[in-house]
Amino acid sequence: MLSEKIRQLTLVLEKHELEAPGGIVSIQLYSELFAAYLYQNDLANARFLWKRIPQNMKAGNGELEQMYKVYVALWNNNTAAFYKAINHDWSKHVSELMFELKEKFQQETIALIGRAYSSIFENVFAEMTNQTPDMIEDTCKSLSWEIVPGAYPRLIIPKRTVDEKPIVVGAEAQLHRLTDFVSFLEN
Questions:
Q1: Which pLDDT tens digit goes with each residue over 22-39?
Q2: Distance between CA atoms of 187 and 28, rounded to whole angstroms?
Q3: Does residue 5 sit in the same domain as residue 78?
Q4: pTM beyond cutoff 0.85
Q5: 58 located within any domain
Q6: Radius of gyration of the CA atoms of the chain, in A
Q7: What range defines the domain where residue 17 resides?
Q8: Where are the alpha helices (DSSP H) in the chain?
């Protein structure tokens, strides 16, 4: 639902930019469009927008520079830098988008941890999700993940949900697919 609203907002903002006299729009429009691209993980368009923004507007605006830091962290897949950059006092016209981006990133990271790890230390989980120990306990409780007490740092054991079972393909089906592939390569 929110993703669709942001996609629509992006289309409107892009249209305003295209129709602007001289192709230059306000800092607010650039900020909103940049934030919308970041939320949608459309890093290519965010990069090209950054290049289109006049240099004098970028240099004089700390918020745009901070958004660029968020972009660089996402581009480099640097979780720690992302949280450092996004924890900023955003202006009212982008604060909701940036908050939603942070929440979305955090939820996607937690889901990825659940699929990729059989166990993870609490301090690593905290760094990857930007959560405090209390928040980690609430998250683990809501996902039915186990926290092994006694050790420091504590160990978190994610549990796969029923719908996350790996797909099992039988040997006969794999042999048939391999035969089809080899046959395709030979012809």
A1: 878 999 999 999 999 999
A2: 58
A3: yes
A4: no
A5: yes
A6: 22
A7: 1-103
A8: 2-19, 27-39, 43-52, 55-59, 62-75, 79-86, 92-116, 122-129, 133-143, 171-186
